[in-house]
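dumping this here before i forget
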Amino acid sequence: MNKQQYQDMQRLVQNLEHRFKDLCDDKNHPVSRSLEQSLRSLEDAFQLAKNPRSIENTVANLEDSFDRLNNPAVMNPEHADYFAGQMKQIKMNLRKFDNY
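structure:
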């Protein structure tokens, strides 16, 4: 297990959490709260250095959620596409982990 890989991904997810908060139009919407909680859980998974395959499942669920997000009250569709793309990138990075 490479601790640096987990730390780098944790920082990336922290940045995505902040960006999500900035780009979210209705922070009190149930979908917004659910996505924010999932991002927080993802950050925790990297902090705890959980199994990359387990983390990958969480990332895949988030990617799917952002792909299906078509509620402009929650977020601009272009921003949702950005987050879905980031989740795809995280999955690719996870597959490069030493302990994958």
